[in-house]
Write a structure and sequence with these properties.
Elements lengths: L24 H14 L6 E9 L5 E9 L6 E7 L10 H13 L3 E6 L10 H15 L1 H4 L1 E11 L1 H15 L7 E5 L10 H5 L8 H11 L24 E6 L6 H13 L4 E5 L14 H17 L7
Parallel strand pairs: 3-4, 3-5, 5-6, 6-7, 7-8
Antiparallel strand pairs: 1-2, 2-4
Helix pairs in contact: 1-2, 2-9, 3-5
Length: 312
Amino acid sequence: MGKYNIHSDFKKYENMKFPLPPILLPLVNFFLKIIFNKVKLAEGVSETKVKIAGYQNEMIELTIYSPKNIGVNAPCLIYFHGGAFVLKAAPFHKKLVCQYALNTPCKVVFVDYRLAPKYAFPVGVEDCYAAFEWVYKNAEVLGIDKSRIAVGGDSAGGALAAAVSIMARDRKAPGICFQMLIYPVTDARQITGTIKEYTDTPIWNSKLNKKMWELYLRNGVQGKREYASPMEAPSLNDLPDAYIEVAEFDCLRDEGINYAKALQNNGIHVELYETAGTIHGFEIAENSEIVNQSVAKRIEALKAAFRLSDKK
């Protein structure tokens, strides 16, 4: 029996860890991109790739996933993938966003933001904000309802989604209607109980978390610190409602819970879902019923945010 009471669906990943040596990251990302692109689209979903101007007018790529029969004025989820701010999207990300697109239904704009350590903070988060601005400005052409644009992300992508929500508020941008944060990174201070306790958990742990922050903030914090570390925001007023999900055996669990409570304390409606027996990145076990239940809860949260819950 392992050290942690991890559900049997995830036992085979007990010895898996993220590779973070900077010298290996280009090679790892090269293969991740190849594998991601080989994942077949779900039946009933089309994809369109576009290049847009990101931070400082450097080009980034967006992929728009659309259910084939979706009408005009569709809701939209802008999704920022996890990967410790340094890794490209994993194969399971494509399968997840196809599920969100088909079963909500909505359009999903998947953002290929630039990665640390080459592009340290604030490049990645500013790329993500540029993607939000582009979607809003081009909503009519894209067939998207401007009043139903949400942001979401997992892990580091959760930090990016939370930060983009804060940036949109600070910059007096049009409102984001919802934020979906899946086992999010929220606090660069790394002071929670689970950060101190979970130094050796599967896939992700506090030792890797420390390395992640060193790479992402290698140039220091230029600008507002909360755009890197949302938990450090002086105010969380006037932000979108949220769905926040955390994994039990994850060093990030407490900071996800803390962020949910901080939002609630500022009058924001938050649905907090604490999964049991789970590890960071547990969607890697694609056939797990626990994964299916979690994805279903996320989709229900999106339906409610997009005012689709009472529609067939």
